[in-house]
Design goal:
- The protein is an alpha+beta fold.
- The chain is 32% helix and 12% strand.
- The longest helix has 25 residues.
């Protein structure tokens, strides 16, 4: 064996196959993430093996994605609860914080807090220059 500085590995010819067992990394943490995912239906809960952190992504419709993270499952649950509380507070805040009570429209329905005319997302394209 000229030029061989180390012994043969387990894959050489004539060697019996060796069974390699799958290792389950951070099993308790992954099980805790699965439990949280089932307990909170409005959230998707994940555990990152690389970062060793818990992450939760909100499943409700929102313009910006809501993502919270923490090192422990209990801490993540607290952050999820705070995010849901903040979402509820933001939904009720505009009418309460403006100081002006909205008057119902002529049909007796609820008043929308959205602007009457939607803003143009491309303001420069709607103006034509006249030469």
């Amino acid at each position: 064996m000229i030029g061989r500085s180390r012994p043969h590995g387990r894959h050489r010819d004539g060697q019996a196959r060796t069974k390699v067992y799958r290792r389950l990394w951070d099993g308790p943490a992954r099980a805790e993430a699965e439990r949280l995912d089932q307990a909170w239906p409005d959230w998707t809960v994940l555990y990152s093996l690389g970062n060793r952190r818990f992450y939760a992504v909100a499943a409700w419709p929102d313009p910006q994605p809501v993502v919270v993270e923490d090192e422990t499952a209990a801490g993540l649950e607290g952050r999820m609860h705070k995010a849901e509380t903040a979402r509820i507070a933001l939904r009720t805040a505009p009418a309460a914080s403006s100081g002006v009570s909205p008057s119902p429209d002529r049909r007796g329905g609820a008043v929308s807090l959205a602007p009457a005319v939607p803003q143009n997302p491309y303001p420069s394209s709607s103006r034509r220059r006249v030469a």
